[in-house]
Amino acid sequence: MRRPRTAAPSTVGTEGAPVTGLLLATCAGAGVFYLYTAVALGWQGLGPGPAAGRGVARRRRSVDDWLAQAGLGGVDVRQVAVVSGALVVVGGLVGLAVFGGAPAAVALGACLGSAPVAAARVRRTQRRSAAQESWPRIIEEVRILTTSLGRSVPQALFEAGAAAPASLRPAFEAARREWLLSTDFARTVAVLKARLADPTADAACETLLVAHEVGGTDLDRRLVALIEDRILDVQGRKDARSRQAGVRFARRFTLLVPFGMALVGMSIGDGRAAYATPMGQVLVVVGIAAVVLCWLWAGRLLALPAEERVFHP
Description:
This protein is mostly helical.
């Protein structure tokens, strides 16, 4: 009798398994590499190293403009990081004392550590609002000094800057020093634009620079058009803020309510012991995260369109 022929064992699965595992491991390693370098080092793109200097320079320029608009042009980012780290430690200790657990302490410390950035954002918003309201008057004064009183463009700019709000005067004073040292109005305008980091300042300075270098009789017409445009923009933003006043107040009020409710709950019965349980810690972290996310989401919805700098150096 002939013995039945048995099928040879298949080697497709065993040969493909190492290849599949190698591909999965390579993809996982590349994903971890790109994720870590993007979060920790700020690298972008698919290359093995950081992006070209253009992207890094653009981000650095954006950070410098942001600090200048907040009145912190001479502050290093590392100093802000040190202050934020100290506040994280303080917030963690407070959270540990109140909630009696590490997860809630870490969440509260992270929230308190963001306070310097939040304060800088408020300061930046206030300074930009004051500058937007002041620039029509400054441009009008420059127009009167150049057309009616016969002042030169640099002299009119410095005289108008001397009567500017206190937050803008240091920039005009730095530009005046540059003018006295170099008598180069282009460099003077560059100093003023870098110190102010404001779209209206860019447009006004470029208009005055062209009038100073090229000359012409249409400076008055151009300044009048710029003044009208700035006045319309300021009035529109004022109307929008007045309509949002009630919503903004409610947003600030609801930020304090959850923390007050947590303190009241801790003082009733065994509330503090309930916070110290694993489930209590999870719920506290979820509550803090929900408040922060809602706060950021509401702020994004209430944000007015920001002007872009056109004549950026």
